[in-house]
Amino acid sequence: MPPGQTVPSTRPDRERVVGASPRRRTLFRVAAALLTLGIFLIDVLSTLEGAVAVLYVVAVLLVARTGRRADIVIAAMAGIVLTVVAYVDSHGVNHVGAQTFRALVSLAAIGITAVLALQHQHAMQRLRGQAMLLDLSHDMIFVRDRGGVITFWNRTAAQLYGWSADEAIGQVADVLLSTRYPEAREAVEAALLEHGSWEGTLEQRTREGQWRVLDSRWVIQRDGQGRAAGVMETHTDVTERRKAEDAALRAQAELAHATRVATLGELAATLAHEVNQPLMAVVTNGEAGLRWLHRDTPDLHEVDAAINRTVGEARRASEIVKRVRAFLAKRSTPRETLDTATLIDDAVRLVQHELNREAVQLRVAVAGNLPPLHGDAVQLQQVLVNLLINASQAMAGQDDARQLQVDARAGAPGEVVIHITDSGPGIPEDHLDTLFKPFFTTKPQGMGMGLAICRSTAEAHGGQLSVDNVPGRGARFRLVLATPIPEGMPS
Length: 491
Known about the structure:
The chain is α+β, with helices and mostly antiparallel strands. The chain contains 13 helices and twelve strands. A hairpin with a 5-residue loop joins strand 4 and strand 5.
C-alpha cells in the first residue's frame, strides 16, 4: 500500500430519528387527550361503580409512544387530577367507602404506570445510545517490515494512537504501542509465516497511555520473488464495543426487570377488577343486614346470615390481595387437592344472589368419579365466578328464559372439562379472537381484564380456557383443568 493512502473512517449517522415521527407524536397526543376526556366524562356523568379512572393508564401508555418524558408526566398528572376532581364532585371530601378504595387504586395504577413508562423510556434511550456506539468502528492500518519497523501509518491510526505518520514511521511497532499478545509473540509470528495471515485480539497503548482492545488481522506482503517483505496490520478498535456490550447486557437485565415491574400497572387494574366483586357483595350484604336490623322487629336470623356472607366476601377479597402480593414477591401460591363438585358449588353460592336477581335458571351437572384437581382454590373459584357472572350479564335484558348450564366431566387422561353455557345472544365472530386480550371489553363499564385473567389462571394451572358459540343456545366457555397423574402412570 503506498505511503500516504488512507482508509475512509466511518462515523455515526447523526440524522437518525429517535422515537416517533412528529406526525405520529401528534396523533398519539390527540388520541390520549380524547381518551382522557372521555374517561373523565364517563367517570363524572355516569353512575358506574367500577374503578373507571384506572383507564387513565391507557392514556399514559399511549403518550409513552411519543418518546417524550413531558408527555408521560402531563398525561399522568392529568389523570390524577381528573380522578381527584371526579371523586370530589361525586362523593365530596368527607366520604370514605368503597369508592375511596377504588379511587386510591386508580391513582396508584396511574402513578405506577407513569413511573414504569419513564423507566422504560430511559432504558430504551440508553439502548439506542449504546447501539450508536456499536456503529463506531475505526480501522487502523499500518505496514511494518520483518523487523517490526513501521513503514506506513494511516490517518485513522494517527487519530487513535496519537502519533502522526512522521513520528511513527521508523519506530518498532511493538515498542511504540507496547503490544500485548494473547499468546507468545513467537507463536503468533510462526502462525503468520505458516498460513500467510493471522487474526486475533490484542491490546495496544496510545500516546496518552490508554490501552485499546483491538481485533487484529495480519497479512504478509511479499516481494517479486515471493519472499516476505513486510506485514500489513489492520486493527479494529473494539474497546468501546466491549464496554457497550457489557453495558447492553446490564441494560438488558435492567430492561427485563423493568418489563416485569411494568406488570404492576396491569396488576393494579387486575386488583381493581377482581376485588371489586367481593367488595360490592360486602356492601350489598351490609346494606341488607342493616335493613333487617332496622325493622320494627329485627330479624336477627337474617342479620346473622348477612354478616356471615359479608365476612366470607371480605375473606375472599383478602385472599385475592394475598395472591397478588405473593406474585409480586415471587412466592408460589398454595396448591391443594380440590374436588370439582365442591369447587363449582362454592362458586355458585358466591353468585347465587346475582343469578336470582337476574332471574337466571341454573342447572349444574357434575359427572361422578371425577379425578381430584390440584391447584389454588381461590384462583380457580374466581375463574368460575367471573365466567358465571359474565354469562348472567350476557343474558340480561332478554325476554326469553335465561338458562345457564354448568357441566363437568372427565376429558382426556389427566383432565377435567367444565362447560359453562348460556342462552344469550352468543359472541360475535369478530370478537372470538380478541375476547381474551387484556383491556378488550364489550361492556360500557367493563375493564377488559376478567377473561384475560381467567385464561392466564387456567394456563398457570396447566389447563386452558376457550370459547365458542352453540347453535340455538348462546356462548359456551370450555375450561380444561389438569389433574394430578396417579403414581405409577407415565407422565
